[in-house]
Every structure is written in structure tokens, then in C-alpha cells.
From TrEMBL:
One of its GO terms (molecular function) is prephenate dehydratase activity. GO terms for biological process: L-phenylalanine biosynthetic process. It holds the Pfam family PDT. Residues 199-275 form the ACT domain. This is prephenate dehydratase. It comes from Duncaniella muris. The lineage of its organism: Bacteria, Pseudomonadati, Bacteroidota, Bacteroidia, Bacteroidales.
């Protein structure tokens, strides 16, 4: 049975994502409280898969997760784009006006910003994950508290749903990366014919048009940039690392493009080569 490390407890979105990605297979999830804890667990057991949120269509990128991935020896073997819909839930018998505090994962709270702004009586308190917040409220019998979580988590922990679909925009998707140790990746990663996406990270020399030259080369080889994220390099003020995701139709063109940009970039790391995912509802 495959073991998949997730951030959060049963019923969280990582849990849902793990089951959807390994669709139909029996998997065992290994719950970790935080993303750094998840990477530590993965580093200590090369037989584990990992699943990690990397960006959301409302709240943006999970910046620290880019760095955790770069510093690890893990490879991306796949991705999942999951529609996220939140509910607000509390112990039964309370109306929303009787509540004073709302708990959830910071990304989930950000995705519901407009709803929460309409309810200023709710003090926003970040917790480790969505389902964990629901569990805490249920187990601690916390009257006055609400959780922002999935409908499944609210039901799992016996909370009463006060309102559904509270995300700011219905087009709320989170993109998850599926991670594995290189040996595991070689066995369970995508077949070469299915690879049409890659994630890389690099730095550029501080010269005129350095990034622009790289992007021009990628475009020449018909590489379609799907994401670019810069992150400050700690200790080198105003210098950045670039995390780039791109898709392509031809593996040959991809390899040619990489050869062409290699002399222009520094500290290149290929984080993974995998199959682009469709949206999962
Ligand atoms: O707290 C959870 O349920 C999670 O799985 C975390 C997480 C995240 O890291 O972004 C996953 C998907 C949603 O974007 C909200 C929260």
C-alpha cells in the first residue's frame, strides 16, 4: 500500500487531494502538522510519497513551499488541480451572529476574505489546517468558534454548517504537487511519453536583460511558460531565484531548450518533469 505524507488531519484538502490523485488505489496518509514537518518526515523515509499545495487561484503562491522543495532532494512526479469550496461551521445550536472567532488554515482564510470582511464580529485566528480547526472545535466543545473547512470535514467532526460556498470566487482551485524520492520517482513517475510539463529553479547573473534572454530562448523552442515565481535570495539583497513552470509538446524541444539556456543561468535545479493536470472538481 502506498503511504502518502500530507499536511493536516483527516478531512483536510491535502487528504482529499491524496485520495483523488491516487484514485482507486488504497493509500495510507501520514499526517504532519506543518509543511516543514512534512519534509522532515519525507527525508527520513524514502518509501513515502508527499503531496503539497503550491499555489491557489485566489490566494496566490505558498512561497515557503517553493524553498522547502528546492532544499529537499525530492522530485515532482505529478500535479493535481483541485476545486476548493469552503463552508463555515460551528457546534450545533448557534447562529453566525453568536460567534466571536473563526479558525482555519491561513490559505483558506485568505480565500474567504470577502465573506470574513462581512462578518467583523469574527476574530480571525490562524490554525494549522482546515479540518484540524473543525476537530479542535468539536473535541474542545468550543462554543463561539467557527471553522472554515470543507463540507466533508464539517460532517466528519459533527459540526453544523452555517453557510456553504464562502470562498470569494467560485473559481477557487489549489494546485498540489506530488513528491517522491528520486528512486521512488523512477519507479512511479510518469512514463516518458506522458511528460509535457517541467518545473525548474535557477538564478541569473546581474546583467542587463538576463531573464529576458532566457524567456526568449524558451519561446523560440515553443515552450509555454505557465508560471514564474521569484523569491528573494537570503543574504544577497535584491537578488532573486526564479521558479519557472512550463509545458511543451515535444520532449526533444524541451531538452534542446534546456541545453540552450544552461549557459545563461546559474544554480539550475530541475524540480520535476511530469504530466500537466486537468482541473478536478
Ligand atoms: O488546511 C487544509 O485543509 C489544507 O489541506 C491546506 C490548504 C493549503 O495549504 O492551501 C490546502 C488547500 C486549500 O487551499 C486550503 C488549505
Amino acid at each position: 500500500m502506498k503511504k502518502v505524507t500530507i499536511q493536516g488531519v483527516a478531512g483536510c484538502y491535502h487528504d482529499a487531494a491524496a485520495h483523488l490523485y491516487f484514485n482507486g488505489e488504497e493509500i495510507q496518509t501520514v499526517a504532519c502538522e506543518t509543511f516543514p514537518a512534512m519534509f522532515e518526515t519525507l527525508a527520513n523515509d524514502a518509501s513515502l510519497f508527499g503531496i503539497m499545495a503550491i499555489e491557489n487561484t485566489i490566494a496566490g503562491s505558498l512561497l515557503q513551499n517553493h524553498e522547502l522543495l528546492r532544499q529537499s532532494n525530492l522530485s515532482i512526479i505529478g500535479e493535481l488541480k483541485l476545486r476548493i469550496s469552503h463552508v463555515i461551521a460551528s457546534l450545533p445550536g448557534q447562529t453566525i451572529d453568536e460567534l466571536s472567532e473563526v479558525n482555519s488554515h491561513p490559505m483558506a482564510l485568505m480565500q474567504c476574505e470577502q465573506f470574513l470582511r462581512r462578518h467583523p464580529n469574527l476574530k480571525i485566528v490562524e490554525r494549522l489546517d482546515t479540518a484540524g480547526s473543525a476537530k479542535e472545535i468539536a473535541e474542545g466543545n468550543l462554543t463561539g468558534h467557527a471553522a472554515v473547512c470543507g463540507e466533508y470535514a464539517a460532517n466528519l467532526y459533527g459540526l453544523n454548517i452555517l453557510e456553504k460556498g464562502i470562498e470569494t470566487n467560485k473559481r477557487n482551485f489549489t494546485r498540489f504537487l506530488i513528491l517522491a524520492d528520486p528512486l521512488l520517482a523512477a519507479e512511479y513517475g510518469p512514463a516518458e511519453r506522458d511528460i509535457n510539463k517541467a518545473s525548474i529553479v535557477f538564478t541569473t547573473p546581474h546583467t542587463q536583460g538576463a531573464l529576458s534572454k532566457i524567456l526568449t530562448i524558451l519561446s523560440f523552442f515553443d515552450i509555454n511558460l505557465s508560471k514564474i515565481q521569484s523569491m528573494p535570495i537570503i543574504g544577497r539583497e535584491w537578488e532573486y531565484r526564479f521558479y519557472v513552470d512550463f509545458t511543451f509538446d515535444s520532449l526533444v524541444r524541451y531538452h534542446q531548450a534546456m541545453e540552450a539556456v544552461r549557459p545563461l543561468i546559474k544554480d539550475l535545479k530541475v524540480l520535476g518533469e511530469y504530466a500537466e493536470a486537468q482541473m478536478t472538481h
